[in-house]
Amino acid sequence: MARHARARLRAMTSVIGVILTAFVLTHASSSSHAKANAARFGPRQPADVTPKIIPPHINPRAIERISWSPHAELYRGFLTSAECDYFVRLAEPKLQKSTVVDSKSGGSIASKVRTSDGTFFEHAEDDVIASIEARIATWTKTPESHGEGFQVLRYEASQQYRAHFDYFHDEINKSREKGGQRMGTVLMYLSDVEEGGETVFPRAEDGKHLGADASACARHKVVVKPRKGDALFFRSMYANVTTDIHSEHAGCPVIRGVKFSATKWIHESPITNAGGVIFADGVCKDVNAKCAEWARQGECEKNKRYMIGKGRENGSCMQSCNACPQV
Known about the structure:
2 domains, globular, alpha+beta, Jelly Rolls, eight-stranded antiparallel beta sheet, four-stranded antiparallel beta sheet
């Protein structure tokens, strides 16, 4: 019996030795192949981090009513995590101290009311941004041409945006070529926040009020907690085109963490001074009589955004700049 046991043990030892030898040889071969490929093709590059383009479909089941006065609703998971990260990655190198609109001059001024850092994006700046704008248009039932370019904001500890209205109080920004009055806002949350940073509606006449689980700023008010990927849509005007004082809102101070958000303001009319146009398929032309003259002066290179376009937007002088797509 003892001899049989020793024989079985030797046999098992031999099999294990063969397996180990095969593993070592295979690993060495794979390592050699990896080194050869690296020498031939260069080091492995990181995967493409550009988000997938998502069609403008809306999931009604993901939308929650926040208030009827003002009209406010929350779309859970409106953005993917990759889209949120994309916004932040593009915005961070361009962030500057945020400003507010001066009610007298219509210009931008610094204010203690708003203590964040921010930057602006062009309308339809690239295909990813354009696809998100198309989804917003479908959700809010407003044309893309009525929307301003996104503003991305970063709020760090203690930074906030005190109670304010998004609609204009000056006449300059309400001009027709600027799209008239702001009638609605889409606020997209690009990051989770550990504590604070809620969006509150202090004048809301209905809606769910939060208690002890909210920060002191948000307690016992109609409030939305920032959650990465969620989007808040609220109206600043009634259907009769008068402003709604119940749309007053504030961004509570961030207590722990960092809050990133992206805002899209929607106007009552098309914004005609944005520079870009969108042609129908197969159409490419100049839309200004001076395009040929400007092209000769070098504006195709100096002012590409207007002359040639960017993202999904066509330029106003594509024909004179020889920038029409080849058919």
